[in-house]
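hey so i finally got around to running the thing on that chain from the lab meeting. sorry it took forever, my laptop kept dying and i had to restart like 3 times. anyway pasting the input first so we r on the same page abt which one it is
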Amino acid sequence: MAQQQGQAPSTGIGASDGLSWSWHLDLDALLTALSEPAPWNHLPQRAARQTESSAAQATRDRTTPPSTAPPSTAPPADPMEEDFAAFLDALDAGQTSVFPLSMAAGRVAEALPAGPDLAAWLAGCPAEELADGALPGAAAAWRRIGAWAQAGELAVVAQMASRSAARDTKNAVGQDGRPGKVTPDACGQVSLALTLSQVAAQSWIDLAVTLRWRLPGTGTALRAGTIDLPRARAIAEATAPLDDDKAKAVEDKVLPRAAEQTTGQLRAALRRAVITADPDGAERRREEAEQRAKVTLYPDPDGTAALTGQNLPGIRAAAAMARITALARALKASGATGGIDLLRAKVFLGLLLGTLPHIPPSPGDPPDPQPPVDPQPPDDQPGPHLDDWPWNDDPAPATGNTTEPKPGKTHQPKPGKGSAPRDEGASGTETQADDDNPANDNPANDNNPANDNPANENLLPGGQSPLARPGSWPEATPFIPPGPAALRNLPPVGSGFLDLRLPWATLSNGGPEPGYLTRLGPITPAQASYLARLAASDPAVDWRIVLTDDTGRAIAVTRIRRGRSPTRPARAGPASNPPGDSDSSLVRRVTVIVATAELAVASGCGPQADGQLAMLAPAIIAAARQAASQAADRTAADAAAAGGCAHTQVSQAYQVPARLREYVNLRDLTCRFPTCRQPAWRCDCDHSQPYDEGGPTCCCNLGALCRYHHKLKQHPLWRLDQPTPGHFTWTTSAGRTYTIQPDTQAA
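ok and heres what got predicted. didnt touch it at all, straight out
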């Protein structure tokens, strides 16, 4: 409660200047914690055992000559316990009335339940004043406070979801307040209030509703600090596919031991419990998950990327990993440098890009035998069809090699030279667990640093390296190559899967500013330059120039025209995919960001650019200067117009023309909901003021909104305004406002 006016400030733990917070302290727990030995001190118990042992030893000493009696060993004394006992004696004698914080803080922190009293107690316990043995307990107490606080936040979020559902006439709410589903209104409010993405806000609300109504035992354990948030989330996620009764049964089974298990141990226990509770459902969910299999690319913090296959059939994924490992060991045996994990990664990319280098035999191995030439099948016996290959839904495992042998085929080394043992079972694959066991991998073959020394690399006759560039990665190509022989050189379908954005300084002179690549986000200048060089060699790539002002915001967009080169490099593949066809271009578009301040000094590219980029540089600068002149005229007209827009680019139609849509997308870059990162080119180009209410189809009234937030904007209790071009203000159903400024072109 607030301190009364004129009252003297309180002293002790939790005291502060101004307002003071008082809390209800469990005195019984406090006295118990102070009267018993510290929880981390086991010396008193040892002392009792030593006392019993000393008594028995004294009896033996009476019958043992003095010369042979062993020296007595007294139990070591704990200085903290001795000081605490001396303090209690002084307190009883009335010699002191001040309780030292360093003596009591750790004891009380471990004894108090999670709640405001423990929070206030810990707030007044500086870590520097705690005894060594009290530090782990204080850390655990803070963890319990964190769980208690997060449970409180989730309770509030659950109430927001319940009240929002009650206002929605299309949503059902149970008698206990449980919402039938999470409304976009609740998701939007939580997203803005907690600065969460839409997906994260949805997940947070789902967890709040689950712990409040579906798994109340887990919610109670979180509120008490018995388990923390990762454990509570693990229980909620694992039981999500089950009905309420089976979910409760799993909760009852795993919750008693959850506090003493790591998160990994708890997840393993949950998997077993879920399968036991619903074995038929577990098998059905596995089959359904395989139908949702996908390959995902996402960036890593160091500028690298992760390419993962998700929801793959488990046995086939393990077999694929075994093949990658066997090929990586073959590379190692042939003299390639690097640890086995690095070589696995190179094989993985090489197989996918079609640029895996030839793996020669290990030194001393006999040459590979030439494969026999199979006669052509008769006309009435056609060769295997694509549908017959074992990656289809045939449950029987494939046998034999499904790929056609090529000249210089991949060499499989003999056991003992980096290859997998040949007695790995009927499947011919090795398990991931065995592969990660250091006892099963010879350090001399795989991860021995001595083998990473280029001086130890095995060279081919004539001093040639087994790889074209030792230690290099498989190269990317400007054009997507056709499929392997097993796919009958299947030509790729589609074009331009990547979009690159980079500053002019990075493109022309290797400046320090990063680029931006679709699917990855920011990339280093070296990566951006590498991809720009690939794109420059493909005449089908679209080159776009975005002009920015001194704040980095887009003010104009233009393009350069490139004629298709008659000498475009031919691509490997069947005649149905002739050279010059653009269907297999890797890069769709390169966007060069040019600041108006750079135009005065911009010329050509630096010496690091190759001939193709050097030829593009004058066209880029010329187009940027022409766009700058047009942008200056529009800016002058806008400055003289009421409302800050002269509508020089307005369209009388409802449908947004392509030229206007492109400018709005480049100005906004992402959805205009403050916490959404959906790219603008995937969004709707929406009228802030509806067109049928007089809103013009102009950049001052258009903004990028993803479909989810476009629908949220149309909620009767929400409102979106664009007071000036590119500035948006959201008003929620609770009356709170949030403003978002125009994005900058900085990658």
